[in-house]
Amino acid sequence: MKNIAAVILTLALIPGVSSAASVTSTTWAVEVAPFAGHRYGGSFEDTNTLARFEVADATAYGLILDFDSEPDKQIEVYLSRQATHLATTGLFTGNPLFDLTIDYYHIGGLYMLPAGEHVRPFLSGTFGLTRMAPQRPDLTTENRLSLSLGGGAKIFLTKNLGFRFDVRGIYTMLNADTSVFCSGGCTIKVRSNGFVQTEVGAALMMRF
Length: 208
Fold this sequence. Notes:
Layout: H1 2-13, E1 30-40, E2 43-46, E3 52-55, E4 58-70, E5 73-88, E6 96-112, E7 119-134, E8 142-156, E9 161-173, E10 178-183, E11 185-191, E12 194-207
Antiparallel strand pairs: 1-4, 1-12, 2-3, 2-11, 3-5, 4-5, 5-6, 6-7, 7-8, 8-9, 9-12, 10-11
């Protein structure tokens, strides 16, 4: 994870710009990309009961903002939400414990790879906050640091309109033997250094 974190921090600290629409280095622009997709994965173990918990695969949606600053590099803001549930695994696989909303609030960078004028593959890295909100009044919301690394392609139909396709891996940090969703007592005592989710999405991209 140290290597992944180094890559993400490097991307995030080097602001960037997309040259996909033949933008000069002195031109400021922003790309707005509302997206929808699917998010997979996320699991951990309860040290009290040894039960394993998994976040159910579910639809994800959100918004990506890319701000130009240098040729082929952009500053990226990534906001994403998944409405899912936490379930046990094992003999009674899939028994839901409670509904769960997982949000990501990230900022970082994007680097455009050399390619044609209308199709631009890219790599992206972001860091920020994971917000896990159980949909039960007796449980508390968890806020944890997280990192993401992804890639994909932007396909420009015109200078200001196109599509964006992403695959992104997201790592949320959890301290070993920490407790989560506590309110008076604690529902789960986690044995984990974190959990990973994968998100696949498609967006309508508008450039201003």
